[in-house]
Amino acid sequence: MHIMEGFLPPAHALGWSAVSACFLAAGLRAMARDLRQHPERRMLFGVAAAFAFLLSALKLPSVTGSCSHPTGVGLGALLFGPAAMVPVGFVVLLFQALLLAHGGVTTLGANIFSMAVVGPFVAYGVFRAAAALGMSRSAAVFAAACLGDLATYATTSLQLAWAFPDPVGGMAASLARFAGIFALTQVPIAISEGLLTVLVVNAIARF
Amino acid sequence: MLVETAAYASRWRGVAPSAKALFALAGIAAAWIACRPATLAVLALLPMLAALLGARVPLRTWLAVARAPLGFLLLACATLPVGPGVHGNWQWNGAMVPVAVHAGLRALAVLAALLGFVLTTPLPDLLSLLRRLRTPEVLLDLMALCYRMLFVLRRAWDDGVEAQRARLGYPGWRHGWVQTWRSTGLLAGHVAQQVWLRAAALQVAADARSYTGTLRFLPAAFPRARRQNALALLAGALLVALALGDRW
Amino acid sequence: MVTDHPVLELAGVDHVYPDGGTGLRGCTLALGRGRRHVLLGANGAGKSTVLRHLNGLLRPCAGELRCDGQPVGYSRAALAGLRRRVGLVFQDPERQLFAAHVGEDVSFGALNLGLDAATVAARVDAALDAVGLRDYAGRAVHHLSFGQKKRVCIAGVLAMEPEVLLLDEPMAGLDAPMQASLAALLDRLVARGVTVLLTTHDVDFAFAWADDIHLLAAGRCIASAPAGQLAARADLLQAAGHRVPLAFALHAQLAARGVLPPAPAPRSLPALLEALRALPATSTILENTA
Amino acid sequence: MVTDHPVLELAGVDHVYPDGGTGLRGCTLALGRGRRHVLLGANGAGKSTVLRHLNGLLRPCAGELRCDGQPVGYSRAALAGLRRRVGLVFQDPERQLFAAHVGEDVSFGALNLGLDAATVAARVDAALDAVGLRDYAGRAVHHLSFGQKKRVCIAGVLAMEPEVLLLDEPMAGLDAPMQASLAALLDRLVARGVTVLLTTHDVDFAFAWADDIHLLAAGRCIASAPAGQLAARADLLQAAGHRVPLAFALHAQLAARGVLPPAPAPRSLPALLEALRALPATSTILENTA
C-alpha cells in the first residue's frame, strides 16, 4: 500500500528517507558482495525487478471478486533473500512513482520502509519459522506472503497515524482510523497475494 | 503506460532532464515551505499549467494519471476529521479540518510538481541524469535492466493472457473463479521462469559484446542544458519566493 | 452438416487498435467448410488481426462475425461457444505455452471446456499422438526444441477438438522437413472435416498447399478464390505485396516455350521439377514444339 | 593483411552441453577472409553452437579455435581481443537489447572496447546510418517494430567495427523486402572487407547469397565449399537435411533439355526466371537443341 506523493509532512518525509537510505546502503553493500561471488545475478536482479514491477501493475483476481495489486515483495524475499529486496524494492517503488504516479518521490522513503524493508523481512522470517515448525511448503509460502503483506499495511497505517495524530485520541485513535479504513482493501489483497505466491513458487519449483 | 507515452510525446522531451528536475524540486520545496491554503493552491496550479501549456501534455492525460493518487488523497483527507472519540464511538472532529485541508493542498502541489516532471521526461533520461550524479552503479544497472525488461515481460504477459483467452482460460468470476485463478497462477509461474531464462540470455548477449561487468551506455546529449538549467533555476526560485512570502 | 453457409465469415469488419494503429477496413472474408485456406498478405496487412477476430479475441468496431451464417454475440457464453469451435494457434510458441509440462499445457483448453478428467486425458493423448509427440506428455516444455514447442501449441488446440483451426504463421522458423510434416498433419485434419486457415508470407507455400487463397492488403480482403484461379493474377498479388508464385511463373514461361504442356499447371516448384523430370530427354521438346 | 590463414577456424571442436545435449563432434570449419559464408543445417544440427564457439562464448571440450591461424586463448584479455574482432548477432532481439534507447544500446559494445565518448558517438552514428536507422538514436527500443529491433542489434555489433560478423538466423521473421534490404547491407559490409557468416535453414536463400557454404549435420561440418560446387551435391545436402536448391535443380533439368545453356547456372529462382524471360520465344529452343 502506497502513501501518495506529498501527503506526509516534510519532517516525516525526510525522516523516513534518511531511515530508508541507511537500509538501502546496507542492502546495496549486501548485493555488491553477492554480485562479486555471482556476477551473473546482476542481470537476474534487473529482470526480477521488472517482474516485480509487472506484478504490482497487474490487476489480479482477488477472492472477493474485486481486483487487487500484489506487491510481489514476499515472493522476492523468498527467492533472493530480504537484504537483496531493499535495492530491488527501491527500484520498483521508484518506477511506480515515476511511471504510474503510484506512491511518490517525497514519500519514497516511507514506502520503502514499509514495502521493501518490513514486508520482505517479515515474509522471510515467517517462512523460516513456518519451515522450522514443519509446515508444508505451500502453507509456509502462503503464510509468509500473506503476513508480509499485512505487516506492510500495518506499517503504513502506523506511519500515517504518526504523521496525523488525532487531536483527541492521539496516535492510537488515528491508527485505529487508518487501519480500519484500509483493512477493507488490504485483507483481500493479502490473501490473493498469498495464493498467487504459492502458485508462482510451485511453478518455479517444478521448473 | 500512459505516463511513459506522454513523456515521449511531450514538447519538452528534448529539454535537459536536469532543468526539469530542478523545477520539480523547487516546486516540492515551495510546497513544503508555504503555509496558506491559497499559496498552496497557486503552487499546485503553476506546475500543472506549465505541463499543460508549456509541454503540451493533454489535460485528459494529466487527469487520467492524477486520478488514482487523487482518489487516495480524497479518501485520506475526508476521513482525517472522522475518528474514534473518547468512548470509542466514531465522531466528527472539527479540529482536524484545517490539518486535512493543509495536507491535501500540500500533497496536491507536490503531486503537480512530480507530474510536471514525469509527464515530460522519459525515465531513461532521468537515469542518465542519475548516472551523472554518481548514483551507485549497481542501482543504475538494476534500473536500466528493469526499464527495458518491463516492456519485454509485459508483452510476454499480455500475449500469455491472450493465448489463454483463446483456450477459454478466463471464464469470469461467476462462471469459474477457480479456473481464472488457475490461469493466472500458470501464467505468473511461466513469466517467473522467464526471469531466469531471459537473465541468462542477456548475460550471454552482453558477453558477446565484451561485457566488462557493468552496463555502460553513452548518455544522450542535451546541448542547451546550461541555459535550460538557468531558466529552470529562475522559475524555481520564483516558486520558492512565493512560498517564502507566507513565512514573513 | 447440411448447410450452405460458410463456417466462419467476416462481413464488412472494421477494426482500429486503441493506439490508432492500422487494423481492418471493411474486411469481408468467408471460410468454406472443410477446406484448406491461406490468408496471404505483407507484414502489417492485418493477417493476425483477422485471426483474432475469427476467434472472438477482438471485437469488430463495425461489421460482424458470422458463424454458420449466424451473427456471433460477444457475451461470455457466446464467446466460449465460439472458441470451443474455433481454435487459434499463435505464431510464437514461447508466448503461448505457460505450463511447466507438455501434458499439462495440452490439457489446459480441454479442461476449460468442463470435460471430465478421463476424457481430457484421452484427448491429450490423441492430440499429442496427432502431432507426433506421443511420449512427451511428461517432458518439461523448456527442454523442447522450437519445432516441438510449435507442435505442442497445436496439440493444445487440437485437444479442444475445434471445427475450425486457425494458425498464425505456422511455418515460420521450421526447417523444410518440419514444414512438410506440419503440412501433412494439417492435411489429415482437413481430411477429417476440420476447416484450416493459416497465414503466411510465403507465396510459394501458399499456392502449393491451399485450396482457397484470401489476399489481404491494408486491412481489406482484396480477393478470395481457389488457388488455381489466383495464381496468374499478378495485379492482385502485387497489390497484396506479393509476386506470382515462382512455380506458376516458371511454368508459364516453359509452357510458352512448349517445354511443358500448358495445363495442368504444377502447384509447387517440386511438382514442376517432377513434371520436368517426367519428360523424356530432349527429343520430346521437338515433338511438343512442333 | 598478407596472410593465407583463414580469419577464423574451428579445428576438430567437440562440445557437449552441461545437460548432455547435442553439441559439436569433431567440427572443423574455416572462414576465408572477406567472403560471404552461410552455415546451413537442419534445426538442432549445431548452427548456433558453432557461432557461440567462434565468438568465444563457449569453450571447446576438445579441439581448438584459431584466429588468423593462431590458437585463441580463453583468458579474459584473449577473449576481449577475439570479441573485438568477431561480432555476434543473436536471433531474438528481445533477448539481446538491454538499453532503453536505441543509441544507448548501440553504444554498449563500443564503450566496452574502452573508446572515448566522441569516438563512440561517431561510431554509433555510423552504425545506425549503415542499418538505415539514422534518426532513431533517441527512440525507445520498445517502440520499434521487430525488423527495426533486429537492425538495432546489428548496429550494436557494427559499432564495434568487427572484422568478422556472425549472424544467427538473421532472416527469420523478416518479410521479403526486409530480407532483401538486410542482404544488401551484408553485401556492403563484405565489400568493405568484413567477413560475414550467417546461419539459415533456407537452402534457396543460402545458395542465392553465399560465396561459401558450410554444411552442418549432427554437430559436424560435412562439407565446406563455394556455393556453385555444392549446389548439385544432393548426397551432401540430404545428409544435412536439405534438398538441392530448386534454382539449380530446375536449371539442371532445363539445361539437359537444351532450354537454357548449361552455364552459368542461375543462383536463384528469380534469376532463373529472368534467364527464361530473356530467351526469345519458341524458335530458339529448336536452335539450342539442334
CATH architecture of the largest domain in chain C: 3-Layer(aba) Sandwich
State the CATH topology of the largest domain in chain C. Answer: Rossmann fold
How much helicity do the residues of chain B have? over 70%
Query: Alpha-carbon distance between the termini of chain B?
Result: 43 Å
Q: Tally of extended strands of chain B?
A: 2
* Element order of chain B: H for helix, E for strand: HHHHEEHHHHH
Going across the major beta sheet of chain C, what is the strand order? 6-7-8-3-9-10
> Could you describe the largest sheet of chain C, including whether it forms a barrel?
6 strands, mixed
Structure summary, number of beta strands of chain C: 10
Compute the CA-based radius of gyration of chain B.
Answer: 23 Å
- The total domain count of chain B is 2
Mean pLDDT of chain C: 89
The low-confidence runs of chain C, each spanning 5 or more residues with pLDDT under 50, are 283-290
> Which structural category do the helix and sheet elements of chain C fall into?
alpha/beta
Radius of gyration computed on alpha carbons of chain C: 21 Å
CATH superfamily of the largest domain in chain C: P-loop containing nucleotide triphosphate hydrolases
Greatest interface and its participating residue counts: A-B, 68 and 76 residues
The whole-number mean of residue pLDDT values of chain B reads 89
Number of helices of chain C: 12
CATH class of the largest domain in chain C: Alpha Beta
Family (chains C, D): Belongs to the ABC transporter superfamily.
Protein name (chains C, D): ABC transporter ATP-binding protein
Domain ABC transporter (chains C, D): 8-243
InterPro entries (chains C, D): AAA+_ATPase, ABC_transporter-like_ATP-bd, ABC_transporter-like_CS, ABC_transpr_CbiO/EcfA_su, Co_trans_ATP-bd, ECF_ABC_transporter_ATP-bd, P-loop_NTPase
Explain the layout of strands and helices.
The complex is a heterotetramer, with 1 copy of chain A (207 residues), 1 copy of chain B (248 residues) and 2 copies of chain C (290 residues).
Chain A: H1 10-37, H2 41-57, E1 60-61, E2 67-68, H3 73-80, H4 82-100, H5 108-132, H6 137-163, H7 170-205
Helix pairs in contact in A: 1-4, 1-5, 2-4, 3-4, 3-5, 3-6, 4-5, 5-6, 6-7
Chain B: H1 2-9, H2 17-33, H3 37-54, H4 59-79, E1 82-84, E2 90-92, H5 97-118, H6 123-132, H7 137-166, H8 173-208, H9 225-247
Antiparallel strand pairs in B: 1-2
Helix pairs in contact in B: 2-3, 2-5, 2-9, 3-5, 4-5, 6-7, 7-8
Chain C: E1 8-15, E2 24-31, E3 36-40, H1 47-54, E4 62-67, E5 70-71, H2 76-85, E6 86-89, H3 102-112, H4 117-130, H5 146-158, E7 164-167, H6 176-191, E8 195-200, H7 203-209, E9 212-217, E10 220-226, H8 227-230, H9 234-239, H10 246-256, H11 269-278, H12 283-289
Parallel strand pairs in C: 3-8, 3-9, 6-7, 7-8
Antiparallel strand pairs in C: 1-2, 1-4, 4-5, 9-10
Helix pairs in contact in C: 3-4, 3-5, 4-5, 10-11
